[in-house]
């Protein structure tokens, strides 16, 4: 019987549980060990005065930042919405798509990090297509997904041969990084 090789680590949990913090810890640890990692994470943006969330930014692992969404964008341009947030699809694509373009002789990283595959990100059909390429070519990836969703790409991720799903909870969020890092390194998901 053929053994399935681990290619996809999926992290899920309720909003605010610490999925992005977990991903950042995993990335930091692997980068400190010299692994070539590429990707992005999302970060809440809060109003400086009252601390209320007003949107999300997308941040590459190299530190480049772009707008993913805002509650009341000052430019008043029509954009697709998810809940109360206007989604800046073009800004997202401009920052993220170059990180996922391996067709133009860009070296493939040892590990891709995608935080997250959700409704806002999937408003970009180009992002969805790039994720299809990642799955088709079995590129090693750590990806976060919303806990409760029926998005087709999320369902496809869950059913991918070689995928492992981790549920983040308050009781395991501080120990899960070490477990996932160990799985990544011992399964040869990364090669060094």
Automatic annotation (TrEMBL):
InterPro entries: AAA+_ATPase (IPR003593), Nuc-triphosphatase_THEP1 (IPR004948), P-loop_NTPase (IPR027417). It comes from the Eukaryota. Keywords: ATP-binding, Hydrolase, Nucleotide-binding. Residues 5-172 form the AAA+ ATPase domain. Pfam families: NTPase_1. One of its GO terms (molecular function) is ribonucleoside triphosphate phosphatase activity. Signal peptide: none annotated. SUPFAM superfamilies: P-loop containing nucleoside triphosphate hydrolases. This is Nucleoside-triphosphatase THEP1. It comes from Drosophila rhopaloa (Fruit fly).
């Amino acid at each position: 019987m053929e053994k399935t090789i681990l290619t996809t680590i999926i992290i899920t949990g309720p909003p605010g549980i610490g999925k992005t913090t977990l991903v950042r810890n995993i990335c930091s640890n692997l980068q400190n060990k010299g692994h070539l990692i590429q990707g992005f994470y999302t970060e809440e943006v809060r109003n400086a005065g009252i601390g209320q969330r007003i949107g999300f930014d997308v941040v590459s692992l190299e530190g480049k930042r772009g707008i993913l969404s805002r509650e009341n964008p000052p430019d008043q341009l029509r954009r697709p919405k998810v809940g109360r947030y206007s989604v800046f699809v073009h800004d997202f694509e401009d920052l993220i798509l170059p990180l996922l373009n391996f067709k133009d002789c860009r070296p493939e990283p040892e590990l891709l990090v995608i935080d997250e595959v959700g409704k806002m990100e999937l408003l970009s059909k180009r992002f969805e297509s790039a994720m299809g390429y990642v799955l088709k070519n079995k590129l090693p990836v750590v990806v976060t997904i919303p806990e409760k969703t029926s998005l087709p790409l999320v369902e496809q991720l869950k059913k991918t041969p070689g995928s492992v799903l981790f549920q983040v909870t308050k009781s395991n969020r501080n120990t899960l990084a070490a477990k996932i890092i160990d799985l990544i390194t011992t399964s040869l998901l990364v090669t060094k």
